[in-house]
């Protein structure tokens, strides 16, 4: 259960609110009118096929892409007018690797502590705390280049956590990891979220992770949100749809069935920009091979 959406006054303050978010790269409409509300304390998953617009949505929320005023809010701060206030509330783990292999785990996290303005006298303790929270205390003095893929992902989590963010944004945090490393990354995320009440916004291609780890999901396709709800609600919605379509006793759908229903056949349908989709795959593979 997520904590109350009310923070003090009567006005509900969403952790993230997008209202009519559009973003285009040239003629490619990457995000085409997204309305989205993430509640404080929930783990919210953004799903969708390659090129659906998930990363672009996330980059708009993190203020890395410019948006007009009034379109993106983070805990009531406007991403266009109050960029720095928004950035101070966020921890962001991008798809691309952000850890430096030639530094130790501790040095990597300390670098983020400086960049995110953690007060000097608190830095050492906060770096140690962040490394401990992700289970890397004993590897803190090893070069990150010697870490396994799962350890690197947890190190990046520590980098994002060192500023004690209220909103943690993770773009495919478990890509390229084996099932044990995946569970370990997710177990850390879950523990930290339970301990701090932090909100988590995550993109993933894993239906299993989405089903088991997320409170609510939005399914994106071609720049738009096609379905929104808890995993159970999404599955129940597909069952109802199948009944309406004439199936007397449809088998219980999986989340993957829901994904396929809303994303079409995916591979067979041309995307908004084939060239872009190819580069997405190439980028994803590159990231996966560097992490793995
Ligand atoms: N920097 C860019 N320049 C041009 N087009 C881009 C750029 N970034 C994304 N796009 C295009 O915008 C669309 C949405 O891309 P986006 O990366 O947001 O999708 P995604 O859902 O995150 O995909 P993936 O699951 O592969 O990460 C795609 O058609 C992509 O090719």
TrEMBL record:
Domain ABC transporter: 16-247
InterPro entries linked to this entry: AAA+_ATPase (IPR003593), ABC_transporter-like_ATP-bd (IPR003439), ABC_transporter_ATP-binding (IPR050763), P-loop_NTPase (IPR027417)
Places the protein is found: Cell membrane
A GO molecular-function annotation: ATP hydrolysis activity
Cellular component, GO annotation: plasma membrane
Transport is among the record's keywords: yes
Region listing for Disordered, in residue ranges: 242-292
Statement: the UniProt record of this protein carries the keyword Methyltransferase: no
UniProt entry keywords in alphabetical sequence: Antibiotic resistance, ATP-binding, Nucleotide-binding, Transport
Bias kind Basic residues: ranges: 283-292
SMART domains in UniProt: AAA
Membrane association type: Peripheral membrane protein
Protein name, per record: ATP-binding cassette domain-containing protein
């Amino acid at each position: 259960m997520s904590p109350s959406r009310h923070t003090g006054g009567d006005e509900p303050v969403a952790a993230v609110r997008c209202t009519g978010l559009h973003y285009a790269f040239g003629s490619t409409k990457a995000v085409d009118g997204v309305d989205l509300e993430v509640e404080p304390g929930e783990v919210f998953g953004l799903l969708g096929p390659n090129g659906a617009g998930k990363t672009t949505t996330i980059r708009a929320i993190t203020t890395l892409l410019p948006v007009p005023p009034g379109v993106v809010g983070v805990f009531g701060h406007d991403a266009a007018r109050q960029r720095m206030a928004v950035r101070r509330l966020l921890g962001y783990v991008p798809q691309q690797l952000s850890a430096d292999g030639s530094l130790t785990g501790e040095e990597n996290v300390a670098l983020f502590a400086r960049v995110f303005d953690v007060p000097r006298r608190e830095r050492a303790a906060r770096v140690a705390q962040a490394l401990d929270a992700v289970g890397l205390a004993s590897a803190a003095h090893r070069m990150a280049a010697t870490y396994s893929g799962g350890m690197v992902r947890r190190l990046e989590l520590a980098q994002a956590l060192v500023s004690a963010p209220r909103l943690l944004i993770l773009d495919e945090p478990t890509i390229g990891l084996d099932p044990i490393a995946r569970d370990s990354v997710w177990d850390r995320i879950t523990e930290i979220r339970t301990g701090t009440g932090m909100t988590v916004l995550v993109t993933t291609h894993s239906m299993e992770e989405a089903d088991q780890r997320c409170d609510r999901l939005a399914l994106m396709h071609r720049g738009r949100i096609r379905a929104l709800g808890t995993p159970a609600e999404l599955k129940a919605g597909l069952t109802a749809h199948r009944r309406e379509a004439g199936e007397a006793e449809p088998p219980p759908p999986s989340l993957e069935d829901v994904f396929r229903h809303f994303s079409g056949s995916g591979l067979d349908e041309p995307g908004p920009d084939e060239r872009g989709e190819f580069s997405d795959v190439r980028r994803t593979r590159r990231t996966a091979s560097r992490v793995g």
